[in-house]
UniProtKB/TrEMBL annotation:
It comes from the Bacteria. The keyword Thylakoid does not apply. It comes from Janthinobacterium violaceinigrum. GO terms for molecular function: nucleotide binding; oxidoreductase activity. InterPro entries: Gfo/Idh/MocA-like_OxRdtase_N, GFO_IDH_MocA-like_dom, NAD(P)-bd_dom_sf. This is Oxidoreductase. Pfam families: GFO_IDH_MocA, GFO_IDH_MocA_C3. One of its GO terms (biological process) is NADPH regeneration.
Amino acid sequence: MSSPTLKVGIVGLGRLGQRHAINLAQRVPNAEVVAACSPVPAELDWAASTLGIATGYADYDALLAHPGLDAVFLVTPTSLHADQIIAALRAGKHVFCEKPLSLDLADCLKVEAEAARHPQLTVMIGFVRRFDASYHDAQQKIAQGLIGKPYLVRSQTCDQNDPSGAFMRFAPTSGGIFLDCSVHDIDLARWLLGNPVPKRVYASGTNAIHTGLQAFGDVDNGLATVEFADGSMASFMASRTMAHGHETLTEVFGTGGRLAVGSNPRLNRVEISDAHGVRNECTPDFYARFADAFLIEAQEFTDAALGRRTLSLTLHDATEATRIGLAMTQAMREARPVAF
Ligand code: NAI
């Protein structure tokens, strides 16, 4: 590609899309946001007034036809991801898309097949934790043999309770807590264990506070165990009801040691000693924990699309995360082990 910068269209300007838009517009040197797309006029107004993105489209196909557009950054509802990726590839655009790739395995495979027809285009699904400095360091240490042979990952994504229950608006389309939250842990487990093949899944869950989730076959706390064909295992917890904040924690057990990332979900390095004891404040939400990783992820996508590096993760990784997440959801809903 002759252009020195990647001309990006940001699609979806909601809770996370605005964060990505700010990174791309202000903090990724080789990216230029040339247009935005959202069906909500106020979101396009925000992009124009806050970031100077003058061209806004309500219609995704119109964005794809924007002159000179190189890439799209999809931060849209999960149910739209597969179709929007395929349309972008057919229009000759590089694609970044938020996780999960899809809630439907056949759709994941369709996207993989379409991407294979366009090997010159970069397609990346945003498994942001791979770009966090601590997870990156842990993975390198495991690959170097620091803890011997890794055989068990125990990983959790636990969100602070939102008493307003605002997240309930995502319940009809999120795919449930395992596909929405644990999909990150599933991807980490595969990465840290060296991509083992899943064999069988057990899962269960409960609604501790948000009983309304039951209507969608969902829970506010879920537990799952995955057995892999090589004898390794992974155990996952996801929660929406933490009192103290957002706590992402991953432990990896190996034959020669154990690594843990995030045992203390500290907000920063300040330690408070007072009448309550010795403590630190906690990260309030996922963005406070992974802000740096979101930026590094966008930089990797941009550099890969410009042909300056290769991606460190594949589309197939995203398909596998969905495959395992679907089996976990089925095991919980049907209250039985599910074999692959
Ligand atoms: P949101 O509901 O706040 O935002 C969705 C955006 O998509 C809105 O701007 C909406 O106007 C726009 N939109 C809806 N239909 C559209 C269409 N047809 N064309 C273009 N834009 C359209 O949702 P949120 O929380 O920002 O999530 C978006 C995606 O990001 C989801 O797939 C979610 O799983 C993922 N996500 C990933 C996280 C991570 O840790 N990597 C954290 C939070 C969300």
